[in-house]
Amino acid sequence: MSVTFVIGGSRSGKSTFAELKANEYGEKVLYIATAVITDQAMADRVKKHKEQRPKSWKTLELYSDFHTLTNFNEFNESDVVLIDCMTTLIGNFMFDSKLDFDNCSVDEVNNLEKRIINNVISLIDICNDNNKKLIIVSNETGLGVVPSYYMGNYFRDISGRTNNRIGQESDYMYFIFSGIPIKLKHKGEMVKWPQDF
Questions:
Q1: Does the keyword Glycoprotein apply (predicted)?
Q2: What is the pLDDT of residues 133-154, one digit of tens each?
Q3: pLDDT tens, position by position, 8-62
Q4: For this structure, is 186 an active site residue?
Q5: Does domain 15-165 have CATH number 1.10.1200.10?
Q6: DSSP code per residue over the chain
């Protein structure tokens, strides 16, 4: 039905903005949490996110196999699907791959990236096919220092290309900068590249 993409830096306020949008879009919200609790810091982040969300929202902890969403009542009964966030999803895929990023081939990394993007596109497709308003949250990872190790470089590049694809597929897009939303794309409107770029 529509895809809204919310992107910004770490702790920029993007999750809060996405949750406000979800409330605006409908009452029956499904929150898809991509985080896997691996340490105390992540547990604290998850706890804070849970406390921030309305109690009436349904939650699924999922970061792959989105084609199976129609098997879940939480999905079928929702009007709005909010997934937070893409960069955590990408990190999970990279961890699950068991690749040695210092020594693996570029083809292996490219295949991993294709799997990630295919999963994200399947999420967009299943939401569109089932008349759900989808909100996708992601970190902008390309504005910082270039990582000095292979895994960090691959993570940044895969995140950038995945975000790029989501941006193309989205109807609405917002960049959150220090808690301030900046509208980048509105259905039917998009900044075009100059002819001589």
A1: no
A2: 999 999 999 888 888 899 999 9
A3: 998 899 999 999 999 999 999 999 999 877 678 767 776 777 777 788 899 999 9
A4: no
A5: no
A6: -EEEEEEESTTSSHHHHHHHHHHHH-S-EEEEE-----SHHHHHHHHHHHHHS-TT-EEEE-SS-GGGGGG-HHHHT-SEEEEE-HHHHHHHHHHHHT--TTTS-HHHHHHHHHHHHHHHHHHHHHHHHTT-EEEEEEE--TTSPPPSSHHHHHHHHHHHHHHHHHHHH-SEEEEEETTEEEEEEETTEEPPPPTT-
